[in-house]
Amino acid sequence: MRILFRKNFYVIFVLDVILLISGYYFATWLRYEGHLPPEVQKLFYHTVLSLVIMKIASFFIFDLYHGMWRFTGIKDLMNVIKGSLLGSLMFIAYIAAIYRFNNFSRSVILIEFILSIITIGGLRLFVRLYYQDGSDFMESLMFWRKINKIRKRIIILGAGEVGERLLRALNHNPEQPYNVIGFVEEGLVNKGMKIHGVPILGIVSDLPQLIDYYSIDYIFIAAPSMRSEKLKMLIEECTGLGIKFKVIPSVTDWLNDNVKIPLRDINVEDLLKRDTVNTDMASVRRSLEGENGHGDRGRRFYRFRAGKTDTGI
Fold first, then answer.
1. CB 200 within 8 Å of CB 185
2. Which label site among 119, 153, 169, 267 has the fewest CB atoms less than 10 Å from its CB?
3. What is the longest distance spanned by two Cα atoms in the chain?
4. Cβ-based neighbour number of residue 300 at 10 Å
5. Using one digit for the tens of pLDDT, what is the confidence trace for 24-33?
6. Can you tell me the distance from the alpha carbon of 220 to that of 229, in angstroms, rounded to the nearest whole number?
């Protein structure tokens, strides 16, 4: 039970207990519209401890206290739902066996079940967002946001998986000097949609207008499949607008790099690179094995290339 030696466990545990008690009381309060009869109040005080014990036990069963809350994901939220459901079913069995549902409203259990999912899951999501965005998260809770004039305004070219990863890398590093204004992509399919709250503003051909309208400082290129001819044309169109370009390196470089934001300036190789040529090795092998009547000679040649000939060479 290593979690018993982690102080964060006790913080979350106590908060869960408080949320469960509050949720149960609020569910009862809603059911009786704020006017709790004396017998209902008495039943609440007699059953609240049992509810908390059953819910907490269910949370332990579904490992809600073994994860790192700063990395809470969909699986953790699903476990919150499963744990709340199991705890509610246990509580129903307890009420039916002990109290026969006398003076107990079944709707209280349903309301409490919904509230426990919202509050327990919301607590973990709050922790995740706090660790993810830091002070920016607290700022995002306000109805207004401070404008950081120091950060450079950027547009990410590429609204695919690489662009999304780049945005997350930027968001996870509060010290980085960039403010992502939006995305552009090569097609109109996703225009108007958002990625982590950042809008897809348009297509590549809209960049000159977007640069002027949003006072953009940088274009980050996160489109590995973009042809060098299009990249060169884009840079030529933006010449004179005071824009700087940065590009994502190869996936291997990104994984092996120790820097938090894997970006570099555009260089000549990016504009001169040729499209990758993929060799169909299966077709080559079939050809060597002699589809045109030279099967034996093809096979000997293939084994010779592999260092395994019948002649012992």
1. yes
2. 267
3. 100
4. 18
5. 999 999 999 8
6. 17
